[in-house]
């Protein structure tokens, strides 16, 4: 019966995915949003190494609102904004909690509560939890609004809901809340900071909310004092609403936000959430998720593997998120109001992380949205001083991390099918940041040390390696998108500057002083060791392999490197939870030993990922890790930046269908959780003896058929040359 109801419901929404409408499969319910919510117990100071920083609450695919308990100070309750997997305290505005009885003392900063979350259900678009001895709370969302349903126990006569305005996950300075009518309020607050108080985030979030019942009492608080006053401002403030629940046990609540104005927040609420039907709102949110999750249909795998797969796909499609209101208005990088025309504006870019996996997956599955991301990024650059940003929250370039990752994001989006943007304008912006020292996005340099890099051909080692990958991506994009061979050749030459870091006395890449002398072997390695960064020449792996003596020397070095899979940032082994290492397991494909890649990927998946709250090996970083997991389990990974194609391992599911743009479908058959080794691969019934597959092979869809074995086949794929741009 439930299956039939789901099928009927899906058919009612013409925008639901083909697969969902046809099969009635509720992919949203296969998601476990608890995965990655916790660390492995090493303490708060090591969360960055071993916690996912994901959150369990409700969000819409790439939506403006994240309605959830925060990773940071979760006892505050349910907040309206939170980035998934970002490993520094941030956001967490307007926390809300339902309480028993009347409010006896000030909630202050809302850190003194102990809700005792007992999760009932945590799936895509819906979160249900028991709080404070049997207050049942359900959360769901639309694209720009959130909705809650609180059910109080039979014994309760009075109930209070508190909403914090002058508090978030960091330390804010500006806040205001006003009770505007029976069971209604509005306000605003600033963003506080990100990754420490030295990095303020310059946004103001506007908030409007209402209940479906009139309160018997309401008021505000500031610091220690509760007041009947209808407004409060500054830190340590909030509003409360007390209800008579003697007869009516269910209290419903809804809100909308805007980063532009209170008027726009009201407009968002009116446009997207006019009624009080919680179930319908929840069903629409899940249908929206089914549209995207159904882009990849996997079947035949274990329930545990399937749950993890769809959860990681869900994380990969949480961000970037839209920033414009229903009227198209958004705050640009110049902190002025702009308006979209025919596209959505996006924000939340963790580009140092996501250029490696997430943007490629998004471009494949949601090319329209990925194209809008690129348009939004170019607009951000043009409004912020002309340079590309690295890591954007709301309308602020935080400047954290390094390199020029956004050039690679743009090139990867194009290479994997998101081409609906002005390529000429994009290349102009990319080249400006790569050629003009001092180019900035807001107050952050697009390429620190660019002057030395251009003059000497090197800069700090890990930064240098990020720059050479970006240079390759710029050149390849110029060639593929615009047929610009001169720019391609120029940037291909620059991409060879990794060689300026090679120290033949140690046979490792190494940082140099400005005068050319060598620094310490591990100096200037950002969030990883020199052994990690050695392999960060993904566009020229043949070159780096030959430099150290060829395949056998590389094989020995890789075997040693993978003897440990969960290194911290300072250890000299593989770190499954750290982005610089993401592509390295596929390097065996370049040395004629693809069976080692096949076995290693299964080992990483089984040992480092679980279907538990501590089930991630590191920060998810706005879907970067989620996308890694998806690619690893379909058996295809995008190793080479700006080049549409995949390095092969082996699929974990017997049947996979990937729905591509233009109604095309790629079907992958023959996967197995227990058999990792490729013995035979056929593409459209044609034998394929190569662990590299160009994306062009799938331009019309097609079928890949694997024959897998339990023991390694040391003949398949060992002689084919892998892409390497010297």
Automatic annotation (TrEMBL):
Residues 1-21 form the signal peptide. GO terms for molecular function: carbohydrate binding; peptide-N4-(N-acetyl-beta-glucosaminyl)asparagine amidase activity. GO terms for cellular component: cytosol. Keywords: Calcium, Hydrolase, Signal. Residues 264-709 form the Glycosyl hydrolase family domain. The keyword Amino-acid biosynthesis does not apply. Its cofactor is Ca(2+). Residues 31-258 form the Glycosyl hydrolase family 92 N-terminal domain. GO terms for biological process: carbohydrate metabolic process; glycoprotein catabolic process. It comes from the Bacteria. NCBIfam families: aman2_put. Monomer. This is Glycoside hydrolase family 92 protein. The lineage of its organism: Bacteria, Pseudomonadati, Bacteroidota, Sphingobacteriia, Sphingobacteriales.
